[in-house]
C-alpha cells in the first residue's frame, strides 16, 4: 500500500510530461505547406548556396563582354496564392496577373511614382508630344518596331487591336473589361500605330493597354478563341513578347518558365535568369519564412504578416532576405452602412430608402471615427506594411489633401466623442449601452462589424471594438472567409456587397493614378441594390448631391491642376461626411533574397513589372 | 440518467431484505463500477486533473478578473511574469484570462456536443439493432447517408440556414453555441450508432435477455436496463475520443469564421491565432496547447478507466 501513492505521483508527472510534449505538437498545428517540391528540386542546392553566401560570384563570364542572358541561373518566386491561369484578361487575382506578366506585356507600365514608362510602345503619348489629344478624345500609341513574339513572329498593331476586340466581346467575359469600356473605336493607321478614340473625353488616357490590366495577347494564338470559346483557349500557355516563355503550367500549383530567346533585349543580356519557377500555395507567414529564414525562395510576394512576427524575422542577423515596401493606392477602411441591415426587413435589408437607425446620424459617425487611433493601429499591427490613414488617398501626392491630418487620440478625444453622442440624444441606458428612440422604436447602439477571416484583421477588429465599447456601444465581431466575402454569389448573405451588417472592413484602392473611376464609386448612381444585383461600387449606400456635383465637374474638367483640386475636395467630403473611416494606407510588402538585384518595388503595377532587369 | 436506478443484477428479493438485517447492502451497477474505477490509478489521477480544469475554468474568471480583450501595446508579447502569469499576446491581451475563458467554451462545447452525439447515436443504434427489419434498414441507410455527406459543405449549409434564426432567438453567443453543438452532434453520431447496433444484434440473442423476456419484462426496460449497460463500454470510449475531436472541430469552425465571433477566445482559436508566434512568443501557443492536451488526455484515460470498470465480465 505504501508504494501506491508514490506510483501515483510518478504517473501524474509522466502524464504532465507527455502533456507538455503533446502541447508542443499541438503548438504547431498549422499545415505548414511543404517547401516547393519536386518541380524545383533539381536546381535547389545551387540556389540555396548562392543565397547563403550572400555575395554570389557570378558564373565565370568574361569580365568585359556584354552580359549574357541566362547567366544568373534559376529564380524562384513564391506566391502564397497559386496562379490558376496565365491569360490576364481572364485572371482571378493578382497572382494570375503577376504570373502572366513574365510572358505578356502591356504598351506601357506604371513606375513606382505612378508615371507610365514605355514597354511595347516606342514612347508614352502625352499632350506635350502630341500623342494625346488636348480635348482628351483620342490617344495615339506608337509601337516599338522589330519586337517579336516568342514564336518568332512579328508584334504589330494588329495584335493590339485584336486584344481590344477579344476583351470587349462580352461573351469573352474578361475580368479586365473596365479598362477597355471607355473605348469607342480603335484603329491602326499603320502597322506600328494604334489610335484610340474614347466614347467621352477621357482624362485618364492611360486607362487601356497600360499595366497588367492591359497586356497584349497574340492575335495568331488567340484569334480562334474569342468570345464564348475563350475558356478553351491556350490560357495556360500564352505566347508573349516578354522576357520569359512558359515551359509548363500546373494550375493552382506551379508555373515554370524559360528565358525567351526572341526577347528584344536578349542580345543585351536580358533576362539574366535562365529559368523561373513561380510556385504558389501556403500562407503568408510560411512564405516569409521561405525568404528570410530558409532562403528557399528568392522572392516572396505579399507578406501580410503581423508586424511582430515579420519584422524580427526580416531583421534577424541571419536573415537571408530584404523586406521591400512600396506605398500603394490601397486603403484599409471601415465602411459605414447608411442603410438598415436589420434581418426583419427581409428584401428591404440594406436597401436605399431604409436609413440606418443610428449610423445615418452624422454625429454618431463622427464620434465613432474620431476615437480610432489609426496611427497607433498601423504602427502596432502593420509595422512596415502600412501607415495610419485619415483620408482617402495616400498617393499620388497631387491628390492628397493638405487639410486633413491624423490627430492623436487621447482621453480628451473620448470626452469629445462622448459629448457628441450625448448631444445627439444617444444616452447611456442601465446596461451602459447608448440608446435613443428613433421612429417610435427604442434603438440600441449594437454594432455588427464584419470582415474577412485573417488574424491581422481580427486584431484590427479587436482594436476598434475596444475603442467603440468605451463610447457605450456594443460591438459584435463577425468574420467571413474571404472567398465568400468577396464573391458575387447572390445567394450568400455574407458578402461585402450585400453588406448585411452595420460596419464592414476591407481594403481597396484606385487601379490607376488617375482617381476618376475610383471616386465614381461613391456617387449615388453606384449604390448597390438588390434590383441591381449588388453591382456598382457604392458599398456604403451613401448619397450626397454635393459629391455627385463635384464628380460631374471632374469628368468634364480637362485642366490637370483643377482636376487634382476636385479630387482633393471629394476626398475631403468623403472624410467630413464619414462615408468611410480610413484606417491604414497599406503598402505592398514583399521580401526578396539579399542576392537579388534590380528589383524596383512598385505599388502601381505588377511587382514583376521589370523582371527582365532582375539579376543575381 | 435512467440507468442510475437500474435494478441491481444480483438483487435478493425485497421481502428478504426486510427480514434479514445482516445482509450486506446491495451493490448497484454504478457503485460496483466506481469501486472498479478507483483501482485504475491513471484514470483516477486524470479524473482529478479534469475536475481541476473544470473548476479552474468555471471559477477562474471570477477570481482572476482581468479583461480578455484589454488591449495594451506597451505590454504586448510579454513572456509570462508575475503580472501576466501566462504572458500576453501581440496586442497585449492577458493570456491567462483568455485561456480561462476559452476553457469554458471549449469544455462545454466538447462535452455538450459529445453528449448530443452519443445520445443520438445510441438511440438510432438501439432501435435499429433491437427491432431489426425494415426499421433497421431504414435507420442504417440514414446512417450511411450521414456518413457520406461531405462534412464541410454540410456545415456551411446548416450554418447559413440557421445562424441568423438562432442568433435572433438566443443572442449571438448562446445561439452560436447551440448551433455548433448541434452541428457537431449531427455530424458525429454515426459511428456510435453502428457500434451500438452491432452490440445489440449480438446481445439480444443472449440468455439473460431471453430470461428477461420470459419473466415478462417490457421491451423498453429490456433495452434500457438489460442490454444498454452492456453496450456502454465501447460507447464511452467513442465518446471520450469524441470530446477531443469536438474541441478541435469547434476551433476549425471558428477558424473558418463559422463559429463564435472572432474575439471569443476558445482554446482552438487561441491555438490558431498563436501559430504564427511560435518563434517570437511561444507562450501564446504553449498554454492553450497544454490545456487542450491535458483535457484530451485526461478524458481518454477516464474513458479507459470507465471501460474497464463497466465491463460486466471483469467484475471483481
Provide a descriptive summary of the structure in words.
The complex is a heterodimer of chains A (616) and B (316). With 616 residues, chain A is of the alpha+beta class. In chain A, 27% of the residues lie in helices and 18% in strands. In chain A, strands 1, 7, 8, 9, 10, 11, 12, 16, 17, 18 and 19 form an eleven-stranded mixed β-sheet that branches. In chain A, β5 and β6 form a beta hairpin. In chain A, α7 (284-292) runs parallel beside α8, α9 packs antiparallel against α11 (411-423) and α15 packs antiparallel against α16 (560-576). Chain B is mainly α and 316 residues long. Chain B has helices spanning 14-19, 29-39, 41-63, 95-131, 133-148, 151-170, 172-188, 190-203, 207-214, 219-255, 267-274, 283-310. Chain B is globular. The interface between A and B is large, with 48 and 46 residues.
Layout: helices, strands, pairs:
The complex is a heterodimer of chains A (616) and B (316).
Chain A: H1 3-27, H2 38-41, H3 44-53, E1 74-79, H4 94-101, E2 108-110, E3 116-118, E4 138-142, H5 157-168, E5 183-187, E6 193-198, H6 219-222, E7 244-250, E8 254-259, E9 275-280, H7 284-292, E10 299-300, H8 307-315, E11 321-336, H9 362-370, H10 374-382, E12 386-388, H11 411-423, E13 427-428, E14 434-438, E15 441-444, E16 446-452, H12 455-469, E17 474-480, H13 482-485, E18 503-508, H14 516-520, H15 545-556, H16 560-576, E19 580-593
Parallel strand pairs in A: 1-9, 1-10, 16-17, 16-18
Antiparallel strand pairs in A: 2-3, 4-6, 5-6, 7-8, 8-9, 10-19, 11-18, 11-19, 12-19, 13-14, 14-15
Chain B: H1 14-19, H2 29-39, H3 41-63, H4 95-131, H5 133-148, H6 151-170, H7 172-188, H8 190-203, H9 207-214, H10 219-255, H11 267-274, H12 283-310
Helix pairs in contact in B: 2-12, 3-4, 3-12, 4-5, 4-7, 4-8, 4-10, 4-11, 4-12, 6-7, 8-10, 9-10, 10-11, 10-12, 11-12
Amino acid at each position: 500500500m505504501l508504494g501506491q501513492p508514490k506510483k501515483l505521483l510518478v504517473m501524474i508527472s509522466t502524464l504532465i510530461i507527455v502533456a507538455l510534449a503533446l502541447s508542443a505538437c499541438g503548438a504547431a498545428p498549422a499545415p505548414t505547406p511543404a517547401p516547393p517540391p519536386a518541380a524545383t528540386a533539381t536546381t535547389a542546392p545551387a540556389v540555396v548556396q548562392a543565397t547563403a553566401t550572400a555575395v554570389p560570384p557570378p558564373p565565370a563570364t568574361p569580365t568585359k563582354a556584354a552580359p549574357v542572358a541566362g547567366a544568373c541561373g534559376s529564380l524562384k518566386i513564391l506566391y502564397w496564392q497559386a496562379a490558376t491561369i496565365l491569360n490576364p484578361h481572364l485572371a482571378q487575382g493578382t497572382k494570375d496577373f503577376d504570373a502572366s506578366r513574365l510572358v505578356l506585356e502591356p504598351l506601357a507600365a506604371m513606375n513606382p511614382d505612378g508615371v507610365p514608362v514605355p514597354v511595347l510602345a516606342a514612347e508614352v503619348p502625352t499632350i506635350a508630344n502630341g500623342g494625346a489629344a488636348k480635348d482628351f478624345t483620342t490617344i495615339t500609341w506608337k509601337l516599338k518596331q522589330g519586337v517579336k513574339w516568342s514564336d518568332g513572329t512579328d508584334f504589330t498593331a494588329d495584335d493590339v487591336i485584336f486584344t481590344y476586340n477579344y476583351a470587349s466581346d462580352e461573351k469573352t467575359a474578361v475580368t479586365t473589361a473596365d479598362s477597355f469600356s471607355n473605348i469607342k473605336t480603335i484603329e491602326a493607321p499603320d502597322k506600328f500605330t494604334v489610335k484610340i478614340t474614347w466614347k467621352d473625353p477621357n482624362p485618364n488616357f492611360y486607362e487601356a493597354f497600360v499595366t497588367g490590366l492591359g497586356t497584349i495577347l497574340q492575335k495568331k494564338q488567340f484569334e480562334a478563341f474569342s468570345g464564348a470559346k475563350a475558356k478553351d483557349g491556350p490560357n495556360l500557355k500564352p505566347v508573349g513578347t516578354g522576357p520569359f516563355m512558359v515551359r509548363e503550367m500546373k494550375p493552382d500549383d506551379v508555373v515554370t518558365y524559360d528565358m525567351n530567346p526572341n526577347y528584344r533585349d536578349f542580345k543585351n543580356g536580358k533576362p539574366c535568369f535562365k529559368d523561373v519557377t513561380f510556385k504558389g500555395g501556403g500562407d503568408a507567414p510560411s512564405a516569409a519564412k521561405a525568404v528570410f529564414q530558409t532562403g528557399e525562395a528568392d522572392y516572396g510576394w505579399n507578406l501580410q504578416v503581423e508586424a511582430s512576427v515579420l519584422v524580427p524575422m526580416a531583421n534577424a542577423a541571419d536573415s537571408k532576405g530584404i523586406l521591400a515596401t512600396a506605398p500603394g493606392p490601397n486603403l484599409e477602411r471601415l465602411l459605414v452602412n447608411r442603410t438598415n441591415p436589420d434581418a426583419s426587413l427581409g428584401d428591404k435589408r440594406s436597401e436605399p430608402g431604409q436609413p440606418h437607425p443610428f449610423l445615418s446620424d452624422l454625429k454618431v459617425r463622427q464620434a465613432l471615427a474620431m476615437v480610432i487611433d489609426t496611427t497607433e493601429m498601423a504602427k502596432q499591427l502593420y509595422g512596415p506594411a502600412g501607415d495610419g490613414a485619415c483620408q482617402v488617398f495616400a498617393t499620388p501626392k497631387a491628390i492628397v489633401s493638405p487639410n486633413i491630418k491624423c490627430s492623436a487620440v487621447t482621453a480628451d478625444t473620448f470626452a469629445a466623442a462622448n459629448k457628441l453622442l450625448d448631444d445627439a440624444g444617444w444616452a447611456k441606458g442601465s446596461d451602459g449601452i447608448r440608446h435613443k428612440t428613433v421612429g417610435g422604436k427604442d434603438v440600441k447602439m449594437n454594432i455588427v462589424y464584419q470582415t474577412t477571416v485573417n488574424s491581422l484583421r481580427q486584431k484590427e477588429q479587436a482594436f476598434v471594438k475596444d475603442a467603440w465599447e468605451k463610447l457605450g456601444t456594443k460591438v459584435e465581431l463577425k468574420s467571413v472567409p474571404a472567398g465568400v466575402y468577396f464573391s458575387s454569389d447572390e445567394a450568400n448573405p455574407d458578402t461585402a456587397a450585400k453588406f448585411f451588417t452595420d460596419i464592414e472592413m476591407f481594403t481597396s484602392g484606385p487601379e490607376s493614378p488617375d482617381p476618376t473611376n475610383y471616386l465614381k464609386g461613391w456617387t449615388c448612381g453606384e449604390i448597390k441594390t438588390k434590383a441591381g444585383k449588388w453591382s456598382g461600387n457604392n458599398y456604403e449606400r451613401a448619397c450626397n448631391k454635393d459629391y455627385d456635383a463635384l464628380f460631374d465637374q471632374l469628368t468634364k474638367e480637362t485642366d490637370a491642376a483643377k482636376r487634382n483640386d476636385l479630387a482633393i475636395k471629394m476626398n475631403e467630403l468623403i472624410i467630413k461626411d464619414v462615408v468611410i473611416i480610413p484606417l491604414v494606407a497599406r503598402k505592398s510588402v514583399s521580401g526578396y533574397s539579399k542576392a537579388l538585384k534590380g528589383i524596383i518595388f512598385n505599388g502601381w503595377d505588377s511587382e514583376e513589372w521589370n523582371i527582365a532587369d532582375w539579376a543575381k | 440518467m435512467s440507468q442510475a436506478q437500474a435494478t441491481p443484477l444480483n438483487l435478493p428479493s425485497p421481502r428478504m431484505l426486510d427480514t434479514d438485517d445482516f445482509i450486506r447492502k446491495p451493490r448497484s451497477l454504478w457503485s460496483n463500477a466506481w469501486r472498479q474505477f478507483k483501482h485504475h490509478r491513471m484514470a483516477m489521477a486524470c479524473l482529478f486533473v479534469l475536475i481541476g480544469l473544470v473548476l479552474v475554468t468555471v471559477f477562474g474568471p471570477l477570481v482572476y478578473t482581468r479583461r480578455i480583450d484589454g488591449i495594451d501595446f506597451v505590454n504586448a508579447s510579454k513572456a509570462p511574469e508575475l503580472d501576466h502569469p501566462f504572458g500576453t499576446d501581440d496586442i497585449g491581451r492577458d493570456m491567462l484570462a483568455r485561456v480561462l475563458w476559452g476553457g469554458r467554451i471549449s469544455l462545454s462545447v466538447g462535452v455538450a456536443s459529445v453528449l448530443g452525439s452519443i445520445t443520438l447515436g445510441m438511440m438510432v443504434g438501439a432501435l435499429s439493432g433491437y427491432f431489426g427489419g425494415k426499421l433497421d434498414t431504414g435507420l442504417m441507410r440514414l446512417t450511411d447517408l450521414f456518413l457520406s455527406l461531405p462534412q464541410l459543405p454540410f456545415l456551411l449549409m446548416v450554418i447559413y440556414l440557421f445562424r441568423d434564426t438562432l442568433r435572433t432567438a438566443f443572442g449571438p453567443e448562446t445561439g452560436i453555441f447551440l448551433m455548433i453543438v448541434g452541428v457537431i452532434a449531427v455530424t458525429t453520431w454515426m459511428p456510435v450508432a453502428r457500434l451500438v447496433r452491432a452490440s445489440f444484434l449480438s446481445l439480444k440473442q443472449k440468455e439473460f435477455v431471453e430470461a428477461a423476456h420470459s419473466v415478462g419484462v417490457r421491451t423498453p426496460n429490456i433495452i434500457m436496463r438489460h442490454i444498454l449497460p452492456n453496450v456502454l463500454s465501447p460507447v464511452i470510449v467513442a465518446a471520450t475520443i469524441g470530446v477531443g475531436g469536438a474541441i478541435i472541430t469547434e476551433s476549425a469552425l471558428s477558424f473558418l469564421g463559422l463559429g463564435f465571433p472572432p474575439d471569443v477566445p476558445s482554446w482552438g482559436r487561441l491555438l490558431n491565432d498563436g501559430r504564427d508566434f511560435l518563434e517570437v512568443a511561444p507562450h501564446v501557443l504553449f498554454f492553450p496547447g497544454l490545456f487542450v492536451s491535458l483535457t484530451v488526455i485526461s478524458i481518454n484515460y477516464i474513458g479507459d478507466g470507465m471501460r474497464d470498470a463497466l465491463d460486466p465480465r471483469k467484475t471483481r
